[in-house]
Amino acid sequence: MEWQKVAEQLFPSGHEVRQDGDLLSGEGRCGEHTVAVIGTTNHTEVGVELALAMAAAVLAVIRNHPTRPILFLVDTSGQRLRHRDELLGLNGYMAHLAKCVEMARQRDHRIVSLVYEQALSGGFLANGMMADVCAALPEAEIRVMGLAAMARVTRISEERLTQLSKSSPVFAPGAKNYLAMGGLAELWQGDLSVCLAKALAQTDNTDHRRVLGLERGGRMLADTVVKKVLASG
User: How many separate domains does the chain show?
Assistant: First the structure.
């Protein structure tokens, strides 16, 4: 779905979200809330420039609008896999963005992300997965690694991985599988402004993903392992 249509549904009372290249920024009104919007479009790759621009947008919200909620609109094909970006230290730029998001959280900004198109690989980590509430539209495409690439890395045949993906969300892409694993809090359908208002009312600083994964049957060991580690400490 085009970001303009998503923004109109999220903010029926109006918004001032603008596109500058592949970067989205601005604000919108949802009920009693004015929400800062930061995002990406055009299935863009997140390189050093875009990571730095998003980090600057987060810092501007912290500086100019204390405690204002932040909504990330996510549409990315992953981190930019270019020699130039790797030499410039793309991992450091992505870490900088993640630190800015965490600083916003520590200063009482509620952080929500919505995958409205696609979210692939590392381009999804620093904004989408860093949110207090991470949601997606049902038709969104989400994956960390395709099965062909996973087969090359794990040296498990693609046929075997395809078979495993039918019964285990861990091996399968798609919004519904990420929901089952707890990576997504929920899929947003119907009135998106109501979904956003609900998310803003329910955000907290607790990471619920491993518990949700256990409850939904998509990630069965993470919560158990964490509890055992904490108990042994």
Answer: 1
- Sign, CA dihedral 62-191-204-118, equals negative
For the range 171-174, what are the long-range contacts, defined as Cβ-Cβ under 8 Å and sequence gap of 24 or more? 171/147, 173/141, 173/142, 173/143, 173/146, 173/147, 174/141, 174/142, 174/143
Round to whole Å and give the CA distance between 161 and 175: 18
Are 28 and 16 spatial neighbours (Cβ–Cβ below 8 Å)?
Answer: yes
Residue 10 lies in a domain: yes
Distant-in-sequence, close-in-space partners of 174: CB < 8 Å, separation ≥ 6:
141, 142, 143
Q: What is the pLDDT of residues 13-30, one digit of tens each?
A: 999 999 999 999 999 999
Please choose, from the candidates 49, 7, 14, the residue with its C-alpha nearest in 3D space to the C-alpha of residue 29.
14
Six token digits for residue 150: 């996973």
Q: Residue 45: phi, psi to the nearest 5?
A: -85, 140
> The pTM is what?
0.91
